[in-house]
Please model this.
Amino acid sequence: MLLTQLLVDESSLSNSQTVALLALMCFNEARLESRLDEDGHLVPLDQQDRSRWNSALIRRGYTYLNRSSQMESVAATRYHLEAAIASRHCAAISFDATDLVSICHLYDRLLEVAPSPIVELNRAVAVSYRDGPFSAIPIVEAIRKAGRLPNSYSSAAVLAHLYARAGQHKTARRFLDEALSGARTQHERQLIAHQIEGAHVEEAGPPAAARIDSDGTRLTPH
Model:
């Protein structure tokens, strides 16, 4: 952030993309303290204590995002769109109040500007909350079928999340097990193991789903 701030403050180097990147950094940094609980475990976006979000950094993010959109008459770049998505999350007073319609539209534009399977996965999660889990399952399965994330546990975690919300518990547990076997860090394994433990309850109760942080920058379980 310091390096980007230095570039933004230097008029001969600053441009709209650099300013948009700084806005994105502000929005992400604002949530940093709420991503871990007191025991050091990852906290998914929908369970984070939003009172712990840094309001000053969020205001800075909006300032830089607005500034970036007024600097040059160019089409929105990846950083502009990712910052805009992050800003929608920061603007919501609760997870349920998130403007998912706007976020999905921004993801559509992001796929045009900077297509990638990770962006598609993030978009699928947003679509699932806008239209329901069944609408997103084919999107994720198509990514897996194409082999575009051969060594990633992310698609398995997303499918576990979607199938659990859809009430298909056995399928959800299968994908949760796959996600656990492919987790890259101890934090991720702890989170997924916790979700698997919740998934192995009686069928009468819904299993805990692997939570995905769809914040427009990267796909993680926090």
Q: What stands out?
A: The longest helix spans residues 55-71.
